[in-house]
Specification:
single chain, about 140 residues, 8-stranded antiparallel sheet, globular
């Protein structure tokens, strides 16, 4: 099993607020405009899952498999040729500041690993930047 880890990001919101937004995938509605149309198509979601067509991979489904309130959200990906899961970890620094880290676990073929490790790490870093910079204010 290969593990990829993002840098720890500091987010200026409480762990409770961040968890409330990220643990309900319906909140992805507010991020749709940040997703590049040339890379992702047919983006749909509900509370526990989201699916999309990613060029050149094809259709991918992400499902929430575990929620530990205000601490961890775990996901598994379906429709991929290799097992793939990731988690978002939250750690409060203060009442209004939280550290966030993302980790991917996947089982890579030893021959492919050198070729795709860098793109996976770059994608993880971009996604963690986007998630860390999201507005987590209460929505009306």
């Amino acid at each position: 099993m290969t593990e990829f880890t993002s840098d720890v990001k500091t987010v200026p919101y409480s762990d409770e607020r961040i968890f409330a937004v990220l643990s309900d995938l319906n909140n992805l509605e507010h991020m749709k405009d940040r997703i590049p149309d040339d890379k992702v198509k047919n983006f749909s979601f509900d509370r526990d899952s989201c699916s999309m067509e990613i060029n050149p991979i094809g259709k991918v489904v992400f499902t929430v498999t575990d929620r530990e309130p205000n601490k961890t959200i775990k996901f598994e990906a379906g429709n991929l040729p290799v097992p793939f899961s990731f988690r978002i970890q939250l750690k409060p620094v203060s009442d209004e500041v939280t550290e966030m880290k993302m980790t991917i676990h996947t089982d890579l073929n030893p021959f492919l690993k050198p070729m795709i490790s860098k793109p996976i790490q770059e994608a993880l870093d971009r996604i963690s930047d986007i998630i860390a910079s999201m507005p987590y204010e209460e929505r009306t």
